Sequence to fold (359 residues):
Amino acid sequence: MFNNFHDLADRQLTGGTLTRDDARAILASDDSQLLELTAAAATLRRAHFGNTVKVNYLVNLKSGLCPEDCTYCSQRLGSAAEILKYTWLKPEEAAEQAASGIRAGASRVCLVASGKGPTDRDVDRVATMVAGLKDEHPQVEVCACLGILKDGQAEKLKIAGVDAYNHNLNTSESNYADICTTHEYSDRVRTVNHAKDAGLSPCSGLIVGMGESDEELIDAVFALRELETDSIPVNFLMPFEGTPLEDTWLLTPAHCLRILALVRFACPSTELRMAGGREMHLRSLQPLALHVANSLFLGDYLTSEGQAAKADLEMIADAGFTVLAPAGAVTSAAADDDDAPSPISIRRRGAGTELAPNA
Fold:
């Protein structure tokens, strides 16, 4: 056992592996240790990523009307959440949305579609979008998130120019049946491995704050470590009205920071993204969390508004970090284009469908 969190960081820097006891100590640390924990995690973050922040941008290709019953999701089967619902965006609409994120500094565009998994026709549709996007922005990474993949689909996406594939584990295997019954945890693991085998960079992460125990959270983080994912997005539950987890408020800003630190210590050299729900749960600790996480989503999420993109970029700059640009170049985090349309405004115009008052 380590004497303090800096000892633990030193051990990680010399090839050590986080143990369950170490993980328990991180999650059980009290508020008086929060700055020490953050500073120790920051040494790992800077050792592997310097002072850069990778900016990612979501494009929601198809929203709502999902046949799956994931309890956390506003797009789930039977959801009463008031969200945008629309079928596939036209390629030019997807390109317009992607371009707005790239102009703001995103080095990765994430193309996301609701549903259990894509048909072969859906894969061809996304491949066409990716080809056009790569023609216009050849240095930008493209990540697809289309659900559970069937044999051969990951290879088609790779050939089309997709760089990465996201499919989150979300929670531990032991907890999975409590949050979803229409598919299994093993389906998610298999999809991540399909992506890896096809040469796609694997991206897989968590949703925290769903009532999981510390042991279940540790199980999930260690499972991601075993999968050797290249990037780990940590989502903080947004308890949408109209879903089974509405009114589930179990997180504090300090505990969110501990969770990020746990992932950083478990996977020191892995891209760690503070993702959906960071604004409502980390709140004023978001700039401090940048000293642990090295990646974020810019602007809005799939069915909810995030922090304004300009505010995100100012936060990065104010915290002393720089935005990592495509091809590894570094650019200023300052937002120069005040007239650039926000992601949500593009979605409202482009989708032309239902809009919730609080979507």
